[in-house]
Write a structure and sequence with these properties.
Elements: H1 2-5, E1 12-16, H2 20-29, E2 37-42, H3 56-61, E3 71-75, H4 78-89
Parallel strand pairs: 1-2, 2-3
Length: 96
Amino acid sequence: MSDLTWDVEVSNALMVGGGISKHHVIWWNQYRGGLDSAVYITTAPEHDGSLSGARLREAISWGKMRPEAPHVCVEGDASLLLPLLGADLFSEPQED
């Protein structure tokens, strides 16, 4: 992961779930000035203080995400949300 972040001009992330995989994505980007944009899908509650529950605004405070970077945290189950996102992303544009 670290090798992917050093030389890129733009770094965006789609993080599904939390824990160590989310941590590494945002952590390595700290060394390049932060993520340029991010989408985070999680079912973890923010109030329990877990790594998985930490929202992306916390990554901004640590320099892991640029302050001006667009980001969204989607609270929901990835087994439902990823197929919906994929269907929209890969759908053919409808002509009027």
